[in-house]
Write a structure and sequence with these properties.
- 2 copies of one chain form a homodimer.
- Chain A is α/β, with parallel strands linked by helices.
- The first copy, chain A, is built from 15 helices and 17 strands.
- In chain A, the strands form 3 sheets. In chain A, strands 1, 2, 3, 4, 5, 14, 15, 16 and 17 form a 9-stranded mixed sheet that branches.
- Chain A starts with a strand and ends in a 10-residue tail after the last helix.
């Protein structure tokens, strides 16, 4: 039995609550109680106590969309629009470099960055997903691993049937890992055929897996779909049976009222990735209208090649600011709504809403502590507002997953994770050099 | 003589350059050379050498718009639109609390935060500006201090004539301080009369001072001006003689083509404050169109009551992302253009472009070093892109102003600054309690 006694707890459920002088009691990886600190100390006098007298304790952040391995391509293609960035820079680099080692190494770096920033769970989509899964386990992180489906071949497989077969084998092998879950991950409407999407739809129904797909990311994607399929991409996915409460629309930037109604009617979720959408000039997602329509919203960083920082706190801050600025209503995306999106919103989208995403008895103890006692953080009026609008991820001091400390005093705590990260010092240099050697002639980077 | 030898130098001038293995040579507070490290070591074998083998060295950041004392009101009014936020929250709090002590204490906190984040110069507008100036000097920071002009009375003065008289007295007393400069600071077109604006215009011409004014921040401000003055605010300021190369348009969110042409024709600058503009739902400034028109752009955090983080690095990152996302062009606001805006762009707006804002021989040595050697920052392809899009202010390790170390190993370096900040631990608590006692009934904050 362990008690964590922070200055404040923001449990996310009930909505908008901030508790002072409360203890979170943990046992066997779960939250067993949230009670006034005095009562908790009396009830469990033998418990180990972690006192955090200047901290806000919140549920661990859920990064609802990323491509973790792409941390090795961070900054390898900046100031480029989405299609040029993909076709001229990222895909050629991936064609040359991608394999299980690239994926494992990139995921180690990404997990280290995410953990230190208070993220306890990430939802990934990439090739060689078993390498993502194994690196995440090494780093002690909770992950939803994507069974990728895409029409074109890669070092990972020959095409959609091969990707699905390998993905399902991975799931069979790893399904008893308590920190892993799985999604079916058709890459995008413009890279997956109707036949493959139908196969995904029937598998999702059969296996009860969430389905995630990049969708309505750019205006061009919609124009192309209208020309080729005579339907907007979301309508095509709906017609193929993919929309439902288990569907995660990634990006969902260009949405008309019918698109929003379609998502709401199916109980689907949106993975909102504001930095990536801005950086690639995709646009600004209508998150306030989505929220009003009752669509569940989570926040994602996207991969480090298009962000370039796997920092859910700054991502969520931008989500809130952008919603206010683009809707013209300063009251939308309140600090508490923002915290909800980056925790329970993400967890629900992944079908994990009953296990993580809030500080409630019975849930797994995925927790993040943020130090607000620094003189530069004074005064604090509302600690949740302070978290969202003033704090930085560098103020995250402690992170627990399943009740185990994974970050302590701003450092990775588990020996295995420390070792994996230490190995990356040399390996990142190797990948740097391979990327530079692979870049097209004329592209020169002064780094390294 | 001192040599700083970082891994990379981004001098800002010439544009887009990144130098490896170069030394910056300092003497008597100035940059005397920027040369290959080997040559510099040979030329000055007796020099003190600071080696920063994993760092990017850039010009100190210039925060082109803030109200430093408002750090004491950080988070005291979130999720509110501009006019309600001003009239129902901020102005009533200021009416009760503001005075030289409030201003001095808030400025100490703000300076500490800004320095640790790599900001070496800030442009302020607030009441009791001599308290801002003295606190900035105590903290060792370069500041442009506003001679505020506003029609309504405050604890600082009875009205515009009194504010101008006191402001000019302050300037007379402090004008020999090398780290201080001064601006004439009419608050906004809707809070300053034509008579007062005419007086500002003639003073600016007489004294050669920059003029800064919040302008075109909200759509409502323009509608009101059309009703009351039959002109848009910028046209009214132009008619009153305020526009010119020394004019800084703060916010400048709602601009039509004629407004942009007016600013360009007069050689005016814009202080772009994206976080504040989004948070108060003011809107998104057309910075790409301003840049294309040739208007000089700087970046400002605004005060901590509307941001809530005096972090120019994240502010500039948002400026770049927002420009890309709102213009639909991913190539605008490149990382180098962004670094220019947050350094030389701000310096030029303040009339300090010949003294600071770039790493060039003859300029004052205002420098910021950012650690990019952390394993989580690997790989680095373009260090300037990495600075803008991936780094956080927590990676700022060293800051120099006039060649003096003000931040070293991520801590304030000067004893006086350390003492002033240490005093704030208790004083911030007092201000917190006074703010809470002053908040309207029904507004409850759980913090403190």
């Amino acid at each position: 039995m362990e008690l964590i006694i922070p200055r404040w707890v923001a449990p996310v459920v009930p909505d908008g609550v901030i508790l002072s002088d409360h203890a979170v009691a943990l046992e066997h990886g779960r939250i067993v109680a949230l009670a006034p600190a005095v009562q908790a100390r009396e009830a469990w006098p033998q418990a180990t106590v972690t006192e955090l007298p200047g901290h806000l304790l919140v549920p661990g952040f859920v990064n609802l969309h990323t491509h973790a391995p792409m941390s090795l391509l961070r900054g390898a293609g900046d100031d480029m629009p989405l299609q040029a960035w993909l076709r001229e820079r990222i895909w050629p680099l991936e064609a040359k470099l991608m394999g299980p080692e690239f994926v494992a190494d990139g995921t180690v770096l990404a997990c280290a960055e995410m953990l230190m920033g208070g993220i306890t769970c990430f939802n990934d989509m990439y090739f060689h997903p078993e390498a993502v899964a194994e690196a995440a386990l090494d780093m002690g992180m909770r992950a939803a691993v994507g069974i990728i489906v895409v029409e074109f071949p890669s070092s990972y497989g020959s095409g959609p049937a091969d990707y699905i077969r390998k993905g399902l084998e991975m799931r069979d092998r790893l399904r008893d890992e308590p920190r892993l879950s799985f999604t079916l991950s058709p890459h995008a409407p413009y890279t997956v055929s109707d036949d493959s999407l139908r196969r995904v739809s029937s598998l999702a129904a059969e296996l009860g897996l969430p389905v995630q797909c990049h969708v309505h990311e750019t205006a061009g994607e919609i124009t192309d779909s209208l020309a080729e399929h005579r339907r907007r991409p979301l309508q095509r996915l709906a017609d193929l049976g993919l929309l439902g409460p288990e569907f995660i629309a990634i990006h969902a930037v260009h949405l008309d009222e019918a698109d929003i109604a379609l998502l709401a009617r199916h109980g689907a979720s949106v993975a909102h990735c504001p930095h990536s959408n801005l950086k690639l000039a995709s646009g600004i997602a209508p998150t306030t209208r989505l929220m009003t329509a009752g669509v569940n919203l989570g926040v994602g960083t996207d991969g480090a090649a298009s962000n370039n920082r796997l920092d859910l706190l700054s991502e969520a801050r931008t989500a809130a600011l952008l919603a206010k600025g683009s809707s013209g209503d300063a009251t939308v995306w309140s600090a508490h709504q923002t915290l909800h999106a980056m925790t329970l919103g993400g967890a629900r989208a992944l079908g994990l809403g009953a296990r993580i995403g809030s500080i409630e008895p019975g849930k797994q103890a995925d927790l993040t502590a943020v130090d607000l006692a620094d003189p530069l953080s004074q005064p604090v009026f509302d600690p949740v507002a302070h978290l969202i609008h003033a704090a930085g991820r560098e103020q995250v001091t402690h992170v627990w997953i399943d009740g185990q400390l994974v970050v302590r005093a701003r450092q990775l705590h588990a020996e295995r994770a420390q070792l994996r990260l230490a190995e990356m010092r040399g390996r990142a240099r190797l990948w740097h050099n391979r990327v530079v050697d692979t870049l097209p002639a004329g592209v020169r980077h002064p780094g390294g």
